[in-house]
């Protein structure tokens, strides 16, 4: 079953500012047991894991899978690799995230940088995956299968038709024009950039 990814725009800003390093930092995957999280304007402004866990602003907090008797703990990616091609960024790793003896239910997965910050309130959130339905392994492996195109992909885009000083709805960094002349251009992450990841 494929899952849909949603990449947080603030992650791209942190990456551009070199606040996070996708190849040397420890990147972890967590799983959400229950709750509803809808991608939209409010979550597009999130920077940290704690904000994600608190919910989308409309449906209440999310509940992470319990580590007690479930075979669950947040998974550290093994040897992640980051590449770019044109305006496409790709994160992948040679080993699929797996929970070998899993007995739990999960509706979402999330990826974050655990090197930056000392707790969820300071750990940058990178993306989350919506499995599309509840997954409930019982004393069996639960695997996020990395596709040939990578664990995570995202595309940079530019705001268009900007006049004067204007701001893209999903970005705090606008293009700046004065008398029609471009003074500064900032890449932004498209807020609805999605991809597919297989789970099960």
Describe what you observe in this structure:
Strands 1, 2, 3, 4, 7, 8, 9, 10 and 15 form a nine-stranded antiparallel beta sheet that branches. Strands 5-6-11-14 form a four-stranded antiparallel beta sheet, with helices on one face. A two-stranded antiparallel ribbon has the order 12-13. The protein has one domain (2-160, 190-199). The radius of gyration is 18 Å and the shape is globular. It has helices at 9-16, 49-53, and strands at residues 2-7, 27-34, 63-64, 75-76, 81-85, 88-92, 98-103, 106-113, 125-135, 138-145, 152-157, 176-178, 181-184, 188-189, 196-199. The chain is mainly beta and 200 residues long. β5 and β6 (88-92) form a beta hairpin.
Kindly state the percentage of residues in helix: under 10%
Order of SSEs: EHEHEEEEEEEEEEEEE
Q: Please state the average pLDDT score.
A: 81
- Poorly predicted runs are 157-196
Distance between the terminal alpha carbons, to the nearest Å? 7 Å
Task: Give the tally of β-strands.
Answer: 15
Topology:
Blueprint: E1 2-7, H1 9-16, E2 27-34, H2 49-53, E3 63-64, E4 75-76, E5 81-85, E6 88-92, E7 98-103, E8 106-113, E9 125-135, E10 138-145, E11 152-157, E12 176-178, E13 181-184, E14 188-189, E15 196-199
Antiparallel strand pairs: 1-9, 1-15, 2-3, 2-4, 2-8, 5-6, 6-11, 7-10, 8-9, 10-15, 11-14, 12-13
Task: Summarize the entry for a quick read.
This protein has two helices and 15 strands. The protein has 200 residues and is mainly beta.
Keywords:
200 residues, mainly beta, nine-stranded antiparallel β-sheet, four-stranded antiparallel β-sheet, 2 helices
């Amino acid at each position: 079953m494929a899952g849909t990814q949603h990449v947080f725009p603030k992650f791209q800003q942190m990456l551009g500012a070199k606040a996070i390093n996708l190849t040397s930092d420890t990147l972890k995957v967590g799983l959400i047991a229950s709750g509803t999280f809808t991608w939209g304007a409010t979550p597009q402004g999130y920077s940290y894991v704690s904000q994600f866990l608190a919910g989308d602003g409309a449906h209440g907090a999310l509940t992470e899978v319990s580590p007690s008797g479930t075979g669950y703990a947040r998974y550290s990616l093994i040897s992640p690799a980051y590449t770019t091609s044109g305006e496409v960024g790709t994160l992948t790793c040679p080993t699929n995230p797996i929970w070998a003896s899993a007995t739990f239910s999960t509706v979402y997965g999330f990826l974050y940088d655990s090197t930056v910050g000392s707790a969820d309130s300071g750990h940058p959130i990178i993306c989350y995956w919506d499995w599309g339905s509840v997954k409930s392994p019982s004393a069996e492996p639960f695997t996020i299968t990395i596709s040939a195109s990578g664990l995570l992909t995202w595309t940079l885009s530019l705001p268009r038709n900007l006049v004067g000083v204007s701001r893209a709805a999903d970005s705090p960094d606008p293009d700046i024009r004065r008398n029609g002349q471009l003074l500064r251009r900032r890449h932004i992450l498209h807020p609805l950039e999605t991809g597919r990841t297989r789970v099960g």
